[in-house]
Amino acid sequence: MSGTDVPPEQIAEPKCPDCGARGMDNIVSRESREKSRTKQPWYLVVHCSACGHVYDVFAKHVFSQPVTPRLVLPKTD
Ligand SMILES: [Zn+2]
After folding, report:
1. In this structure, which of 26, 31, 33, 54 has its CB flanked by the most CB atoms within 10 Å?
2. Cα(61)–Cα(34) distance, rounded to whole angstroms?
3. If you measure from the C-alpha of residue 21 to the centroid of ligand 1, how many angstroms do you get, rounded to a whole number?
């Protein structure tokens, strides 16, 4: 494989729209505290490690009835 080098400036680093933190290091995921009977987390919250801004929420456990996750993130400063 050759000729597919991509200049670094063309690789978009993820950036937090809230605090401006850049890079994958600042994007962390957390499993829901609520768990199903099979000990599976219901959803995964992807958020900024610096300010807690939530990027997305993924359902990990799918039921026939929709589950509305309640987002409660600890506010650290
Ligand atoms: Zn942030």
Report:
1. 26
2. 11
3. 5
